[in-house]
Amino acid sequence: MLQVKTFRPGFLAISTMCGLVFAACRPAASIRSYSVPKEPSKVAQAPALEPTDRMLAAIVPAGEKAWFFKVTGPLKPINSVAPEIDKFLEGIEVASDGEQPDWTLPAGWEEQPGSGMRAATISIPTTDVPLELSVLSLPWTGSPQDGVLANVNRWRRQMGLSAIGPQEMSECTSELQLGDVVATRVDLRGWRKEASMKAPFSAGAKARSLPPSKVPSTPSAGRVSGAPEMEPPEEWQPGRLNSFRKAAFVVKGPGQQAEITVMDFPASGGSAMSDPLTNLNRWRDELGMQALAEEDLPGQFEAIELGGTKGNFAALFPENDAGQATLVAMAERDGLIWFFKMKGDRDLVATQQGKFREFLKSVRFDPALESANSGGSDDHQ
C-alpha cells in the first residue's frame, strides 16, 4: 500500500519558532569578541620593572662613631662614575681617634662645607646630572653586624626594596678593608623614594635642621654657629673644632692639659647616647675603671640644671695610675642629647672642677637652634 505523508504546516512553524527561541537564548560563539594584548605591548612594559636608581655607600666604624658615605642617583650617571666612587671609598683613611677621616678627591670632584649633621658634601660631575656624595658621622650603637643590617634595610626601604636578613647581606654588601678598619660597602639598585629618607639611627624621630656649621671668625670663641651660648673661663683657650664638636676649649697647667668639648647627638641614637649607665660605663672604661651594674648607679650622678634643662653631672677620678680624670654633664633637650665634658690630667681636672661647674651654669641654648630643631631634616642619609 502506498503511504502518503501529509504535510502539516502548523507543526513546522512551531518547530521553527522553538529553534529560533533557543538559538536566541544560547550564546553565539561566532560573534563574541575579545581584547587580546599584542606581544609588542608586553615588551614595551618590561623596562618599567627595571631599577631606575642606584645607591653606593660605605659604613665606616671608628670606635664609638661610624662614618657614612653615600651617593644616590639615576642608574646611568651612577654607573658612569661607579669605578671612581669605589676608588674614592677604598682610599679613605680612618683616624685612630675617631675624628673625621681623610680622603683624596678624584679629578673634577669638589668638596663643599658641611651643613647640619653633614660633615661634608662632595659634588661629582657626570655627563648627565651632577651627583652629590654626603659624609655624615653618628654614634655607633649596638653590635657592628646589627648596626650595618639596620642601616642597609633602611636604605633598602628608601630604594623601594624589601628588608633582608643577615644571611642575605652578601647580596648587596661587601667588606672594604681600610687599614685596620673593616668597613662595609653597600650597592643597591631600585627606585629612589626621596620623601622617606632619614638619617641613620633616626628611628622616625623628629629630625632637626641646623644652620651651616662653620668656625666663627673669632677663634677665641671656641664654638661654631648652632652651639649654645656659654662663658668659658679666661684661661681656657680655643680647642680643636670639627663637624662633630659644637665647642672645644683647652686649659693648661705646668706640664698638664685638659680638653673641654661640647657635642650633641640625636636622642634616638639608642642607649649608647641616652642611657646614663651606658654613658657612665663608657667614660669609666676610658679611664680604665671597672664597669658598674644597674644597682650601682644610684649616687653616681648629681642632678643639675643645664641651660634651663634638668641634667646629670658626674666626676670620675679613678684610683688607678691612669693619671686622667673626667668631668661630664649630659642633658636632653628638643630631641638632642647634649654632652659637656672635661677630660685630662687628674690634678688639673681637680683644680678646674669649680670653674667647669660655673661654665655649665653659663650655658644658654641658642634660640636660633631651638627654632631650627622644629623644622625638617636637611640631610638624607
Task: Describe the 3D structure.
The protein is of the alpha+beta class and 381 residues long. It has two domains: 53-196, no CATH class; 219-373, Mog1/PsbP, alpha/beta/alpha sandwich (Protein Transport Mog1p, Chain A, 3-Layer(aba) Sandwich). The protein has helices at residues 9-25, 39-45, 75-90, 144-158, 271-274, 276-286, 346-361, 367-373; strands at residues 53-62, 65-74, 110-113, 118-124, 131-139, 173-178, 181-190, 237-238, 245-253, 256-266, 302-306, 309-316, 324-333, 336-345. The strands form two sheets. It has a seven-stranded antiparallel β-sheet with strand order 3-4-5-2-1-7-6, with helices on both faces.
Query: Overall 3D geometry?
Result: elongated
Q: Based on the coordinates given, report the CATH architecture of the largest domain.
A: 3-Layer(aba) Sandwich
Q: Identify the CATH class of the largest domain.
A: Alpha Beta
SSE pattern, N- to C-terminal: HHEEHEEEHEEEEEHHEEEEHH
Q: Numbering strands along the chain, what is their spatial order in the largest sheet?
A: 3-4-5-2-1-7-6
> CATH topology of the largest domain, which one?
Protein Transport Mog1p, Chain A
Helix/strand/pairing category: alpha+beta
Number of domains: 2
Enumerate how many helices there are, as a single number.
8
